[in-house]
């Protein structure tokens, strides 16, 4: 099925809603945290036999007496239960973006919101990866600032459909209206600051149900104190329900282990050796408020790690990206909810810094 | 144009210079943790790393040191690219490390500090590309 753009009123509204999420924010001029500004565009696509995570990021980094933009594209591909991918970096001269515009260009990679949806292009020869995708929104967006109690603002479009193709090494994968997700994050903070998060999005096919489900939790850096929770549920195009903090309970069983774990960048396995992840094997939640309730279980399958050097100490922040199954059931606004689908779960961990080791 | 190839000694010396500038915290940890001196052999290249006047100094040649390391350029690049794990390198004989336990523990901390410094140094990708002599990373 080829991508056919539509132009009905509903689609117009969804694209306008998408535009609110997609536009580049950039650091606040003269803002106190401008020198720490970080911004990233995150995309997940679940094809028939493949999952793709694509992340475009731009961050301010101190250099000499001032600061400069550093860009990075991370691409993770999961096929047959195995992850591959990596990252490519870009300097200021290869970064093109402007506050308020819905286009970010990093070298030969670009993300742009246009009249049809989100157009993604990436040419990453060092990773052996090329892609061209059109993501068309199916739900309205949601923008929150800041994300829970982290210094990060967050805009999300939980359900889109993806058309296009991806070439990874010698394999070509075609996307033909497959489920996709997009979020956009921005704020001024240091990696290593006092927060960690968990986050999950369902990636349902049309025949698996009409719900978009995203949940997130925020912790202190030790992961011992939970400082915020949310569960968001969309039905068709509309945001149906938002559950907060004390209305949600989480529990977990076991830990995910894996014989070999892909680390991005590859050299980071020297700083995060071993195959223990700290990622729960199964995570349950129960959200209840008034007559509405939703229960969910995310069952992890496998994981790849993005490892980021801290700016606060000689430690790292590990972003565990997990493929999982998410089952939700409940009742919201008189509607019986039941849906099972693939999902992506993200779990941040903070191994002890070099200085903290005995 | 291909970048000029560099020896391991040159790679290490230049990367330490940039590390002191770009990642002083990592450099300082490296200085504190390194067990006096370390003898490193990469293929046929032999050098000594030692602390002198609060800086790391490098010199060519074979000298006794509390810790000695033997490896190859191929193993170093495989470790950087994630094709080879550290434990597998030791078990497979691609990397050998000799010394008393306390010195080896110190070396382990110094090694991690070096990697932390390398990933925080904006100069490292180009230096590494020169070590590979295959173009920019």
Task: Write up what this structure looks like.
- The complex is a heterodimer of chains A (358) and B (137).
- Chain A has 358 residues and is mainly β.
- Chain A folds into 2 domains: 8-189, AttH-like domain (AttH-like fold, Beta Barrel), CATH 2.40.370.10; 190-358, Beta Barrel (AttH-like fold).
- Chain A contains 1 helix and 22 strands.
- The N and C termini of chain A lie far apart (59 Å).
- Chain B has one domain (8-129): SCP2 sterol-binding domain (Nonspecific Lipid-transfer Protein, Chain A), CATH 3.30.1050.10.
- Helix content of chain B is 50%, strand content 20%.
- Chain B contains 6 helices and 5 strands; from the N terminus they run H-H-E-E-E-E-H-H-E-H-H.
- In chain B, strands 3-2-1-4-5 form a 5-stranded mixed β-sheet.
- In chain B, a hairpin with a 2-residue loop joins strand 1 (37-42) and strand 2 (45-52).
- Classes of the chains: A mainly beta (358), B alpha+beta (137).
- Chains A and B meet through loops of A and helix 2 and helix 5 of B.
Order of helices and strands of chain A: HEEEEEEEEEEEEEEEEEEEEEE
- Tell me the count of domains of chain B: 1
Shape of chain A: globular
Unreliable residue runs of chain B: none
Using a beta-carbon cutoff below 8 angstroms, give the protein chain pair with the largest interface and the number of residues from each chain.
A-B, 20 and 22 residues
Question: What is the number of E strands of chain A?
Answer: 22
Largest sheet of chain B: 5 strands, mixed
Secondary structure tally: strands of chain B: 5
State the secondary-structure class of chain A: mainly beta
CATH topological fold name of the largest domain in chain A: AttH-like fold
Q: How much helicity do the residues of chain A have?
A: under 10%
Per CATH, which architecture of chain B?
Answer: 2-Layer Sandwich
In the predicted model, the low-confidence regions of chain A spanning at least 5 consecutive residues are none
Please give the count of helices of chain A. 1
CATH architecture of the largest domain in chain A: Beta Barrel
* Structural domains of chain A: how many: 2
Q: Per CATH, what is the topology of chain B?
A: Nonspecific Lipid-transfer Protein, Chain A
